[in-house]
Amino acid sequence: MNSNILLKASKLNTRIFYKDSVVNAVCDLDLELREKEILAIIGESGCGKTMSMLSLTNLLPQSAKITEGQILFNGKDIEMDNEDQLRKIRGAQISYVFQDATASLNPLFSVGEQIREMFITHEKIPSAESKNKVLEVLESVNLKPAEKYYSYYPHQLSGGMNQRAMIAMAIASKPKLLIADEPTSSLDRITEMQILNLLRDLNKKMNLSIIFITHNISIIENFADRIVIMYAGRIIEKGDAKEILRNPKHPYTKALLKCLPKKENKDKFLNTIEGNVADLSDLPDGCKFNPRCPYVMDVCLKEEPEFKKVSEGHFTKCYLE
Amino acid sequence: MLLRVENLGKQYAISKSFFSNKETIVQALDNINFELREGTILGVLGETGSGKTTLAKLIVKLLEPNNGKIIYNFDNFPRNVQMVFQNPFSSLNPMMKIKDILKEPFLIHHLDNGTDTDSKLRILLEKVNLSYDCLKHHPDEFSGGQRQRIAIARAIAIEPKVLVCDEPTASLDLSVQAQILNLFIKLKEELGLSYIFISHNIEVISFIADEVLILYEGKPVERGLKNKVFNNPLHPYTKILLSSDIGELQKTSAQDNYSGCKFYTNCKFSSDICKQMTPEEIKTEEGHYVSCHILK
Amino acid sequence: MSALDNKTLFWGLFFVILLSLIAVFAQFISPYAYDTIDADNILQPPSAGHIFGTDQLGRDVLSRMIYGTRISLSVGFIAVGIATFIGIILGSMAGFYGGFIDRAITIFIDIMLCFPVFFLILAIVALLEPNIYNIMIVIGLTSWMGQARLIRAEILSLKERDFILAEKVLGASNQRIIFFHLLPNAVGPVIVSAILGIAGAILVESGLSFLGIGIQPPTPSWGNILSEAKSTLGIAWWLSVFPGLAIFITIISYNLVGEGLKKYLR
Fold first, then answer.
1. Stretch A158-181: mean pLDDT, rounded?
2. Which residues in A have their CB inside 8 Å of a CB on B?
3. Is the pLDDT of residue B256 over 70?
4. Most buried among A297, B100, C82, C119, using CB within 10 Å?
5. B44 forms bridges with which residues in the sheet?
């Protein structure tokens, strides 16, 4: 595997400032992404997965701010205050796809026109040529025949088709990295699988690196190269996808894998994780998973664990042996 | 047998354009048959637009059917069929305290008598694993999973026989989904409830259901005992659902008017008859029904 | 986070409460009776004895304005009360039942909105006896349309929400759904619009009294004090400036409260 590092974030901290409190949405995030790699970020609601990805190009909402940390992209430092540099990176080199594609598209323009707009403004391509470019991109996301889809408006297309159109727009400028934030969560299973297949294809054909955010650990088995698991704003386990799915080390990862209903499961009850998803404004001392952890020890209540190497490329934050 | 659905159909009229009175008829649900047996869970599996929410609303009489009928094998209608909605953030009145929300069923059915109701609420909360002091709070102080427990408590308060659950775990986190699914199973055994459990998630259905009904674009595709359907899928759509190899499926839409099988455009085995005629439901073995021409 | 952090709301509430206190305790705080004629002291400019001066009949302007507060505020409150009541009934019926009832009520609202309301009021008041009760009722009967539309829109969006469907599934009656579940959730914007409506009603009353068909002298209202000031505008500025300011401050403060509450009642 190509081991060139495309993106490296170290000690990234993002806080959200409310009127009378501050919440640590992302805490000491260390992340590496290699070229042509698909990285899946997995976590439940409020675990900081979206916030950490928005932090990468400082797309944060007004109330949130990066308080610490460094991001290297393609060997260069991303300066968080340098709006000019950020604007050149966003869209052109790092682009995003969000969950609700139908809401992300402008209902007043046809799908093709919206992508063409991208070419004319970002790439400075003359408008005569741009249409052919758009058709090319539509074909690459399997919206065929492209001529037909060019003139469709978002409301004429299904959720899955709109998500394809969004992906087409995101890859139009041939970015190095695509960040997909729960792009399939509101889609049906079959459509979801198709979108995953499409992303996998693009990853191979265009050498596109992908960060795929999801709450659903069951869909990434044949999709991601590496996995990062987040809980309460922190990464608690990371490593090779197959390794983690086969040999999860953190009690949270283990429980998450076990609580999925499976066709082969013959037990009457599912395994569960007791309690509720961590509330960022009210976190315990020590390991943030300790109130829900069945193996909790004294040390877990006092001090937050550091990363520990399990095997080559597999790290976890847990005191358990 | 608690409930039987015969040839159930529902159409909606939608006006095509703002400026004309022309209406298009959309067949949201067509020719649905099934039985719900006491103490069992019927899983209804379908994608967006398969008509599964319409089916739920028909059974709890939020909608009236255009064709066919639903035969309830019990009286006292609203008390005996209750519903749990998908989104617990919108299914609880934000202005009311949990206590008042849970008292509603008793008040509506004139079963409220002070102290007695209080102890009933206590038992109700125990059943869904919530603490007694949640009563004095408002819904916005709870997480999605806790809210769904409250919604379930409200639905079982007046001891219904049938619970219709419309994607009750679709908006929850996975760890919470497992808790809620276990709760449904526990309640089924403790209270002898029967469920019509609607979901788009085949794993959830395969975990929880005893019998399944698979819908595609408002039409029944395959139904029967879970083990028979899932171990021996016969309809091409069911086969695709159960395999991990997904081809390029294209959804038909209301505008494409042809009278045949809705799965025609995506089916590898389709022939002319599939386009012209809607397949009849065929019984292939005891407890297994398929609607497909290729089985003839 | 308390509502008083909000400066708009704070100053609005401050003046609204102050004005209400003045209205309630009018007889205790006014230095003179509002109708005591003092022929020796006509058209006196503001002085220590008469802080706001005196009018053509030598009556103390401050005392008349204090009593006028009572009149103006009660007209505002009661007129808006009537309008809100009608608005809630018609609006919730239209929104909840839909179909023919909705169409009938919507058309009725549209017809009412076609009339230039102020002239409609003028015409009705000209026919009836222009006393304070008629004024309140007429203003109320001609200003409910906005409230009705607002309620209708709120109910239309609320009634498709799952918690309303859940009530229907439980077998709740329509009355129960409307009064216990729909209206409490629609009440926020209604209160805001009612408070803004009070300012409007006070303005209409002042206008009518200024034209001489509102509150009849000797009962004082800000409008008729202004009206009497017309003839002496050149020589007695205090007769028009103080009631004008009072109207201005009242309208502004009710608007401030309305705007300030918007945030909290949404």
1. 89
2. 44-45, 142, 158-160, 188-191, 193-194, 197, 215-218, 222, 255-256, 259-263, 265, 268-274, 276-277, 279
3. no
4. C82
5. B198, B213
